[in-house]
Specification:
By secondary structure, the chain is an alpha/beta fold. It contains 23 helices and 31 strands. The protein folds into 6 domains: about 80 residues, 3-Layer(aba) Sandwich (GIY-YIG endonuclease), CATH 3.40.1440; about 70 residues, no CATH class; about 180 residues, P-loop containing nucleotide triphosphate hydrolases (Rossmann fold, 3-Layer(aba) Sandwich); about 180 residues, 3-Layer(aba) Sandwich (Rossmann fold), CATH 3.40.50; about 60 residues, no CATH class; about 90 residues, Alpha-Beta Plaits (2-Layer Sandwich), CATH 3.30.70.600. The chain has a 7-stranded parallel beta sheet with strand order 11-12-10-13-14-9-15, sandwiched between helices. Strands 16-26-25-17-24-23 form a 6-stranded parallel beta sheet, with helices on both faces. Strands 2-1-4-3-5 form a 5-stranded antiparallel beta sheet. The longest helix has 19 residues.
């Protein structure tokens, strides 16, 4: 008897074993899709993890219903990667399957089909066709018109016929279905289903590679030299130094060797600009993959990567690490420092950069990490641990100077009542000058919405989410209060429900508020806002970036989306409206992240032409980070961070695992968190365990959350640490009242 072990798209640790009949046993392979039962009524599309003859004991084995195709849809290296992710990030392989595979491949996938039209075999010769045209009676003039329209669309007399859809034919001819049906009944036309691709075939003339300048060529040569001895290289290049052109030359060399390239980006917004640049060189060799694509589109890309004619270059966000690769030769992780590469919820809580490193190693491929502001961990791995090579590119392209950064003390200006809303006199003046010169402006505020919260001025009441322990954010344009954790919405109140006061005031400000103030100050300026609320569709990103590139917009207001590698020629002025919101965050990475965000958004200014200017508004001009940003002194910043982290036992010297415990009952959650902490202290020692703790938001979706932080030395065995951790969890779950609680892990949190 032949058996298969199957991964199901469920958060379950184990695979499930099924028997297969003799016919299926001859055809089934590892990585194929099978339809299998689970329980009495449910059935799922599973992935075959193993084919074997080991009879399971202790239970009756069910038979698999069907083999959905005879060729694997998941390749061996993909299954190997799934196993590594599940093990390292402490989740189920079913979680990985759910995240990795498009939903369409978990069901019977239906291709996109159009109704096409062709002549019946009787009339496919020119002679028969001419006889038909001559034989139309006078009352059938519209039938003759429709036939002539078909012949024109199909290029019948110029070497056709080409494919013609019924929809296109009817739109072209402006005739009715009755006329069409008459030709079908007459035996002239016949219809047939035609499968069409959802993928665009972007035919364009190619421009070839741009020559590199001396600095870029030197960096490229050093990267190649580094790859001779190491699998990973960190390219530390200042903003606008031309890193993308270096990537392009490496990609060209890789695909010339017949190998594929994975080019990772942290934000979907970036794919629009990078795609245009790469397609000018590589044309239709590029496939795009990210969450804004429809599920059928993602299925088609997946299937193309399994075909004999796959995309040689995949450009995408973090989920593109899961695609099938047949001959992967190079992985590029652009803006490698970005926290967007880390999946937060749901599981698997993987880091795409680290997963890409593992993926590349499975194929023997090289990995290039590129950024103007490296993560502390990557910098340490390149400079002190010796794991990565390091190549530096410290000059901007065409010798452009880095922007001049002008700090403005808004605390003092508020005291003197000299602020224009949230704009200092300096920033307002510089904006007026830039608009007068027809230059573009980017304004950065790292909060969306109109105001982070509203408050009753009389009694201090603040509206809170009914499901989460957070205040609601005011969104003025929808006139709603919104929870940014669970999505709960409620209308904006007109009076305080606690004391009846009508004096409800906005506290803080977000991108919506900035947009309102700009329209009031500069009524003739063309303003655009880029944040999560305005970019929910794939086309929204593309249109915004295209409009800004073509100078249809004067002022772009945005959250951290505008800081990530966007390249605009006419931006001379960048305004950072409130640097303090980035600094006052309860996280050991706050200083590092604040530097990265400010340096990156500053780098959008003055990329072409004259030197750019950044107006940096802060209430703490004396903070060391402000001087680091002004001087573009990344190395001093990172050395200070490394010293602090070594003392405090944080990455890169220690690895972190956050243990989360969730339940609707607060007391039960607190009880288990305390007991779990005590047991961990017995196993790992008190110096490695911090807890029990409450996360910054201690209730989400009506579930109370307990948290424990575990610190493991980077030199210790993480495999052994995970093993001990799971043993403690198993011990906790033996306590009857704890069986209903959720326990999950966040390994290497960001």
């Amino acid at each position: 008897m032949t058996y298969i072990d199957v991964i199901l798209p469920l958060p379950l640790k184990a695979t499930f074993t099924y028997a297969v009949d003799e016919d299926m046993a001859q055809r089934v392979k590892r990585g194929c899709r099978v339809l299998v039962p689970l329980g009495k009524k449910k059935h799922y599309t599973g992935i075959v993890e193993k084919v074997h003859h080991d009879t399971p004991g202790g239970y009756e084995v069910k038979y698999a219903f069907a083999l959905l195709e005879e060729q694997p849809v998941v390749l061996p290296n993909q299954l190997k990667l799934w196993e590594w992710i599940a093990d390292y990030y402490m989740c189920a392989e079913g979680d990985v399957y759910n995240a990795a595979v498009p939903a369409g491949l978990k069901l019977e996938f239906k291709p996109k089909v159009e109704t096409h039209v062709r002549l019946t075999s009787t009339y496919r010769s020119e002679e028969k066709l001419q006889q038909l045209l001559d034989s139309f009676p006078k009352r059938a003039v519209k039938q003759q018109e429709l036939l002539l329209a078909y012949l024109q669309l199909s290029d019948f007399f110029e070497g056709g016929p080409h494919e013609v859809s019924k929809q296109d034919l009817m739109a072209f001819s402006h005739l009715s279905n009755e006329v069409f049906n008459a030709l079908v009944n007459r035996g002239v036309f016949e219809t047939y289903p035609f499968v069409i691709s959802r993928l665009t075939d972007d035919a364009r003339s190619l421009s070839g590679l741009k020559p590199l300048n001396n600095n870029q060529q030197r960096a490229l040569d050093e990267i190649k030299q580094c790859f001779e001895n190491r699998a990973v290289c960190l390219l530390y290049g200042v903003t606008s130094s031309g890193k993308t052109e270096i990537y392009t030359h490496l990609i060209e060399e890789t695909i010339r060797q017949g190998k594929q390239v994975l080019y990772l980006l942290p934000e979907i917004a970036l794919t629009t600009q990078i795609t245009e640049r790469l397609k000018r060189v590589f044309g239709s060799s590029i496939g795009i993959y990210h969450s804004k694509f429809s599920d059928p589109e993602r299925v088609e890309i997946w299937n193309k990567q399994l075909s004999d004619d796959p995309y040689m270059i995949i450009l995408g966000a973090r989920s593109s690490v899961f695609l099938p690769y047949q001959q992967l030769g190079l992985v590029i992780v652009d803006e490698e420092h970005e926290s967007s590469y880390k999946q937060q919820d749901p599981a698997p809580r993987y880091h795409a950069r680290n997963t890409a490193l593992m993926l590349a190693s499975m194929y023997g491929a090289k990995t290039l990490l590129g950024t103007a502001t490296p993560s502390v961990e990557s910098w340490y791995n390149a400079t002190e641990a010796g794991k990565y090579g390091l190549v530096e590119l410290k000059e901007r392209y065409q010798e452009m100077q880095l922007p001049d950064i002008l700090p403005v003390d808004i605390k003092e200006l508020h005291r003197k009542k000299m602020m224009y809303g949230h704009f200092s006199p300096v920033l307002k003046e510089k904006m007026e000058e830039a608009l007068a010169r027809h230059e573009q402006i980017i304004l950065f505020q790292n909060r969306r919405g109109f105001a982070p919260m509203i408050e009753c001025h009389d009694c201090g009441w603040v509206p809170k989410c009914v499901h989460c322990d957070v205040s609601l954010t005011l969104h003025k344009y929808t006139n709603q209060l919104v929870c940014h954790y669970c999505g709960y919405t409620t209308p904006v109140p007109h009076i305080c429900p606690e004391c009846g006061s009508q004096d409800l005031r906005n506290i803080g400000f977000g991108t919506e508020k900035v947009e309102d103030e700009i329209k009031e100050m500069f009524p003739h300026a063309r303003v655009m806002r880029m944040d999560l609320d305005t970019t929910r569709s794939k086309t929204a990103y593309e249109k915004m970036i295209r409009d800004f590139e073509k100078q249809r917009t004067d002022i772009l207001i945005g959250t951290q989306m505008v800081s990530k590698g966007l390249d605009f020629d006419h931006v001379r002025l960048v305004g950072i409206l409130n640097a303090d919101t980035m600094l006052n965050y309860p996280d050991f990475r706050a200083y590092e992240r604040a530097y990265q965000l400010m340096a990156q958004v500053a780098g959008r200014a003055g990329r072409k032409g004259e030197r750019g200017l950044v107006v940096l508004q802060t209430g703490h001009v004396d903070y060391p980070i402000i001087s680091h940003v002004i001087a573009n002194d990344f190395e001093s910043m990172v050395q200070a961070q490394l010293s602090e982290r070594q003392v405090c036992h944080f990455p890169p010297f220690y690895r972190l695992v956050y243990i989360y415990i969730k339940h609707r009952d607060r007391l039960l959650t607190e009880s288990m968190t305390a007991k779990f902490t005590a047991q961990l202290v017995k196993v790992f020692g008190s110096e490695r365990v911090n807890g029990p703790m409450q996360p910054a938001v201690a209730r989400v979706h009506s579930l109370h959350i307990g948290m424990i932080m575990l610190k493991i030395e980077s030199t210790a065995s993480m495999a052994r640490a995970r093993e001990l951790l799971l043993q403690v969890q198993h011990l906790m779950m033996q306590v009857p009242q704890f069986k209903s609680l959720q326990v999950y892990y966040d390994v290497d949190p960001v």
